[in-house]
Amino acid sequence: MSKEIVLKIQELYENWIKDDMTSLDSANIFANLLEYVEETKKDICGKCIPCRDGIPQIENIFRNFEIEKVTKNDLVKLENYVENLRSSKCSVGIDFGKNMEVVLRNNFNDFYRKVR
Ligand code: SF4
């Protein structure tokens, strides 16, 4: 997995503001998102709940998507965890959440077509 992909995901929200391309390639999207989670987890300090608890929950849901064992409930939970990240105390959680909001919006079909 390349650092390039992680950097691209890290820049999604900034690119969205600039009206640049913000869709991810569907191929390996969940493996790539999990790589981004791994990188982000290194910076989590544990001081606030939306980031400390939410990002690992998002990771679990991405793993379910990767093995195609997801329900509509997982998707609803994912949307809620992502939205909660707006309340994070610092840019680690806030930026992760903003980038995930762009992913949920622009790669909508990659998520919804796997839901049973
Ligand atoms: S958002 Fe910032 S303060 Fe909150 S747990 Fe993550 S790194 Fe710590």
Explain the overall architecture.
This protein has helices spanning 3-10, 12-17, 29-41, 49-52, 54-66, 72-84, 91-106, 108-112. The protein has 116 residues and is mainly α. The mean pLDDT is 94. Bound molecules: iron/sulfur cluster.
What's this model, at a glance?
The protein has 116 residues and is mostly helical. It has eight helices and no strands.
Q: Specify the CATH architecture.
A: Up-down Bundle
Beta content: under 5%
Helix fraction, binned, reads: 55-70%
The count of helical stretches stands at: 8
The helix-and-strand class reads mainly alpha
Low-confidence stretches: none
The SSE string, one letter per element, is HHHHHHHH
Say what the CATH topology is.
Answer: de novo design (two linked rop proteins)
Major sheet summary line: none
Task: Identify the notable features of this structure and list them briefly.
116 residues; mainly alpha; de novo design (two linked rop proteins); 8 helices; binds iron/sulfur cluster
